[in-house]
Amino acid sequence: MPLPMEAVVLLLEKSAEISGCEDFALRLAAQRSFTNLGPISLVLKEEATARQALETLCRYLRLLNASLITRLEENADTITIREEMHLPSGTRTRQAMELAVGVMFRILRELLGEAWQPLRVGFAHRPPTDLVPHQAFFGATVTFNLNFNGIACKRGDLETIQPRNGPGLAHVARQYLEQALETQLHHTQETVRQLIAALLPAGRCTSQQVAAHLRIDRRTLHRYLAKESRTFSRLLDEVRLELAQRQIRDTDQPLSVVAGLLGFSTPSAFGYWFRQQMGCSASDWRKKAVPAPVAAQPLIPLLRH
To answer: Are 192 and 51 contained in the same domain?
Structure first.
């Protein structure tokens, strides 16, 4: 039975807080393996390369976690696996995001071997007090306050041909997963929200792009949304606002960088939009949302009687 993602995220944050264990999510991720993916694992093991396996995982992962979007971003010699999480704006996601990236790291290790190392691991949130557990888990440079959450890999590592075990039950699993995706399209609004959250950091997000990811045409997308009394433009604003509030509150990114992550061409365009949405400037909102550090209190000498 699926669990509400907000409840799971809160449980992770509270568990880390009460235990005093900043790397709580990474300790959970260390126990995860292919088998936790259920029928998806059967399909992944059939793919010829790690890259094809990741592309398949990106397609089916929302069946396991409706709030998490995984996508591949390509550069000359590197491929970055980006993780985006779509949750209400007030939700703390540090532990949930570290769990997602940690599990992805474990999956890559199973695909490429225990000796494999990423180029870099990045998180958008602020760094923990102690970096040692994170560096020990990933065995690579871990950087915080970035414009993405995810893992950067060498392109060649992901395109190496992998040994295959034969089709087995993989074709049955794939049919099942495709049927499940088709069923999920009946809940178009949430699916579109997830895709908007994933596509925004790469630039301008349009209904045409979202429809292409869903393998439907733009008119069909608008028709599905109309049945739920929603419009694409309104969903775009809602998701942008949720992401903006999270970036402003939980990271130290300059507002100019936040503007780019949300698909705005200029910081001034972002500033105007934010004021229209919230009734105040983004900088003023940050001052209210991020508590100032508590100043050290002077020691009070003991009185002698």
So the answer is: no
